[in-house]
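In line with agreed milestones, work has continued on tokenised descriptions of protein folds. One protein thus recorded appears below exactly as we store it:

>
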Amino acid sequence: MSAPIVAAGCFLVIALLVVFPGRPARTATRRRLVQVLGDLHPRAPRRPDVVRAGAVLGGLATAVVLGGWGGLAAGVAVAVGLDRSLRRLEPAAQRARRLRELADLPLAADLLAAALRSGAPVDRAVSAVAQALDGPLGVRLTAVARSLRLGAEPEEAWAHLAPVAGAERLAAAAVRSAGSGGALAGALTRLADDLRADRAVAAEAAARRAGVLIVLPLGLCFLPAFILAGLVPVIVAVLDDVL
């Protein structure tokens, strides 16, 4: 079997490991917690053994293609680099979940404020909003509502929203309201406006960054062509006249 075929097979396995990172088995305790609180983490980060297998295959493919002691050294370096890169790579399902939670957070704050203004208790208001959202953020809010209903401390109950970016402000406002007895609806309305403004600013920054990244490959291709077609003939002509 030739070296290119072996390398291609190794890289194909690596691609499959990246797309299908695997999912750790659930213990009996975890299954019971999922039944009570809901599955807050349906797709866990990539398993260490899967990441290690992908890194080893990448290093093996590099060593086979290059060959010799140099190929072996390069294979070790590639294996270490792949191991670190794959551990930091976010699975597609986890990324989609995170983006969905970010998109639903301002709406959740508005709905929760409206439910509180109607006179509903905090736990029932949170439960109603969770049912209305019907998404990953709704699962977390369901866990918050159940914790509050079971008598958990506000800090412990609202900690279910901690993994969601921006939700720490919502949790902090709810905890302050529970401690001081102040109205929470007004703070949630202002928070929803702030979250939408933050999203608009982030979207504008991402659009500007995308414009720069799009122009960068064009510049990298144009600059060598300009040097070869424009500057090199002039320099050669000048050197020919001088010499």
Remarks:
- The two ends are 55 Å apart (CA to CA).
